[in-house]
Structures are given as C-alpha cells and as structure tokens.
Design brief:
Blueprint: H1 2-9, H2 17-29, E1 34-37, E2 51-53, E3 62-68, E4 71-78, E5 81-85, E6 93-95
Antiparallel strand pairs: 1-5, 2-3, 2-6, 3-4, 4-5
Length: about 100
C-alpha cells in the first residue's frame, strides 16, 4: 500500500482536492456512509466495470459498484486504500473505461 510506504518513509501523501472535498463533505455530514476496507482496491476491479458518478456530491468520482453487506456501495481508491461509500443507489453512473 502506498500510504504504508509513505508512512514509513516520512513522505506526505498527496490527495487531489477534487477527491478530498466530496470525501470531507460526506465524513462531516454522514460518516456512517464511509467504510475503509481491508482488501486492496484492485481486488474490487475483478468482474466489475469501472463507473463514473454523474450526480450528487460524488459527481466525477470513479470506482466500482460492489455489493457489501447487502448494499450496493461505490468502492473507490482514496490515498492508496479502498473506501466504500454507501447509499449510492440514487446516483447516475456512466462507464469510465471499456475493456
């Protein structure tokens, strides 16, 4: 994991503002929607299509919609970690990449 390597080497992690602002908004208003996952982000790519969010606070973010705890959640990479955001079933998506 990049953050682990960065942590051990005392180098600061850089997270784009376009990713950080929506994440901070969700964490301040509805932190129960956010789950940090133990598995690496690449694990969620298997058998899933990468999508881009078109609506809501996460507009422009990319990730995989994965069923976790009987809920469809957007799994995205955040600073080298996989993070799941719940309650995305009302959002509109488009395919971000083609195989």
């Amino acid at each position: 994991m990049r953050l682990g390597a960065i942590y051990l080497s005392s180098i600061s992690a850089t997270i784009a503002d376009s990713l950080m602002r929506p994440f901070m908004k969700i964490m301040s208003e509805e932190p129960e929607r956010v789950t940090f996952l133990r598995d690496p982000f690449v694990k969620f790519a298997k058998d899933h299509v990468k999508l881009r969010v078109l609506t809501g606070v996460l507009r422009g973010q990319e990730g995989y919609v994965v069923r976790i705890l009987r809920d469809r959640q957007l799994v995205m990479e955040f600073g080298g970690y996989a993070v799941a955001i719940s309650n995305v079933h009302r959002e509109d998506f488009e395919i971000a990449e083609q195989d």
